[in-house]
Task: inverse folding
C-alpha cells in the first residue's frame, strides 16, 4: 500500500496552510511551488479540499486559499478521505463489496486489524500538530495575501 501522490500533495498543502497565521491566504501558485506540485494537478486537489470544507477558496485580487480556524485540528484521515474517499486496505473491508469467503477467511481479520490501526494513527495526527513539527524551510512560509 502506498499513499497516492494526490493525497501526499494535499497533506503538504494542508500542513502549510495550518502553519500560516489565522485568516492568512496563499495563492495557488505559491502552494504549487511549495508542494512541488504541477499547478493543474494541484487545482484538482484544491477543488476536492474545498468541496470537503477543509479549505476556503477566495477569488479576486485578495484571493487565495485559507484554512478555516476550525480546520486547523483536522486529521490526516479527513484529508486522505477528502482526496481518496474511504480507506479500505482490502476489498473485503469495503461494505459496498461482497466476498463469498468473508466468513471463513483468516486474512480478513488481519486486514481489519491493520486497517483499524492505520485509521487510528491517521485520525490522531492533526494538521496543527504537524505544522508545529515541520522543519523550517520544508515548505516556505506563505506571504500573507490577506489577513482579517
Result:
Amino acid at each position: 500500500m502506498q499513499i497516492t501522490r494526490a493525497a501526499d500533495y494535499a497533506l503538504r498543502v494542508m500542513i502549510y496552510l495550518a502553519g500560516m497565521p489565522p485568516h492568512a491566504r496563499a495563492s495557488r501558485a505559491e502552494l504549487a511551488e511549495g508542494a512541488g506540485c504541477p499547478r493543474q494537478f494541484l487545482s484538482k486537489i484544491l477543488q476536492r479540499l474545498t468541496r470537503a470544507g477543509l479549505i476556503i477558496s477566495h477569488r479576486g485580487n485578495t484571493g487565495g486559499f485559507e484554512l478555516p480556524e476550525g480546520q486547523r485540528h483536522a486529521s490526516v484521515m479527513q484529508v486522505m478521505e477528502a482526496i481518496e474517499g474511504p480507506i479500505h486496505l482490502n476489498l473485503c473491508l469495503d461494505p459496498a463489496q461482497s466476498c463469498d469467503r468473508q466468513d471463513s477467511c483468516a486474512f480478513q481479520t488481519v486486514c481489519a486489524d491493520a486497517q483499524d490501526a492505520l485509521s487510528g494513527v491517521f485520525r490522531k495526527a492533526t494538521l496543527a500538530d504537524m505544522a508545529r513539527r515541520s522543519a523550517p524551510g520544508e515548505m516556505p512560509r506563505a506571504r500573507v495575501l490577506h489577513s482579517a
User: Anything to note?
Assistant: The chain has six helices and two strands. The two ends are 42 Å apart (CA to CA). Confidence is low (pLDDT under 50) at residues 140-148. The first strand starts at residue 56 and ends at 58.
